[in-house]
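INTERNAL AUDIT FORM
Audit reference: QA-55
Scope: verify that the stored structure record matches its stored sequence.
Auditor: D.O.
Record contents follow.
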Amino acid sequence: MFKLNKDILFLIFEELKDDSKSLFSCLMVNKLWCETIIPILWRNPWCHKINYNNKNYLLAIISFYLSDDTKEFLIKKGIQIPTISSQSLSFDYLSFCRSINIDIINNIISIESSYNQFLLQQEFYRIFIKKCPELKYLDIKSIKHQIFYFPEANIRLESLCELECDTSIDSSYFYGLARFCQYIQRLIIINIDPKENNGISKLIEVQKNLKYFEWNDSFEDSDYFTDDPYKEILLELEKKANIINHLKIFFQYVDNFRYALLQNVLTKLYKLKTLICDFSIFGEQEVKMLVFKDLEILNINYITLNEASNMIENSGGNLKEILLKFYDLYKFDTDFDENSLNFIRKVYKNCPLIEYLSLTFPPLEEHFDEFENLLKNCQYLKSLLLIISDIRIFETYDKTLENGEELLKILVRSAPVNLREIRFFNDFKFSLEALENFLESWKGYALTILTSDTIYEGDDYKNLINKYKNDGVIKDFRCESTANVENIHFKI
């Protein structure tokens, strides 16, 4: 049997770094595979799909690194330290680790006393700071220890690339981080306390390579703020306009002043490649002012078709994802027919590289024609979310099936060869015969189809779907919730 060398194996397994199930299954093949995979798994051991509440062995591995004096001290405090039967570990696991996740470390510690938990957490953090050659990723949500005071912390924290935190952490903590962490590339903040946090502003201010910024409000509705949690953050982001490429931002409470400030900052972030935001606060004139020539990902909540068309026209032809949640707004669009036609045309004229796309349009002949033009022009398209409906048009059940048959014929004729996934939102229907003709004629990749209509869970449909699964035409055909169908990042 041909034997791959370690370097080739590493490159292969590196491609699977986000597929922990496959990596774990490969561990037992042989010693070489195991030696190659362990460093990959332990680079970020917290990201794998594991029930950490019941992983005593992971706790035992970390505990192994505690000094005898520390173990003796903890045992005297009544803390049970798990042990490993062998005298030494097969690998120096923590030497591979480049990340700390506070929440998960807390989850694997099952100690009743809060004080004992505090002691054990402190020793674990100290061990990680000592043993990890460098830190790339740090999740400090709910942290209670000032880890930047540990010996060697300054050296470890200087290499930090990604930080996740929440606003329950005192400003002084972020001041401490700002001393050492000045090359963070990804900063993710969960706002659970709607108060001004000057420490976060300071941390943003000192960054020299901040490429990705994410802010998510997660607190109960408030009629007003005594402090402004947004102003200083936005002003600091504006100063980073020449380096920020990716922005994901959801503000729960925006008054006129904050709205004007957010709009002003967005107009300055001219280098954005990713924009994920809520546009319910903007109008069409304001959206026209947003010009992002490098934009690749546009994922917006509550945007009208006209606003989306303007943004697409103002982009530089680099868009790869257009995922827009406008299907609640089209009901109130008096020019929905014309606006949806214009949107489809803007996409295929301005987005030759598009891979992921959500579309909404009425089931009319001209719209089907333009949809086919889009398929012919957008040859890189991989995933489609289709919302083909108009509440102002009453259609019989037979007419709905006729529309479904026409859509499937268009897909067979003109779908790009890269198309791998189609999502049908709400009650779009296909007759059994039309679906069979479509699957029989499909010549592209094995398709994944998601729908929220339970009609396809009937026995006749299931038998047909299973037949084409066995033939390799369908990868999966799933009835899911509307929320999962419209979430393009939900994967089966």
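Auditor finding: record pair retrieved intact. Residues 114-131 form the longest helix (18 residues).
Action required: none
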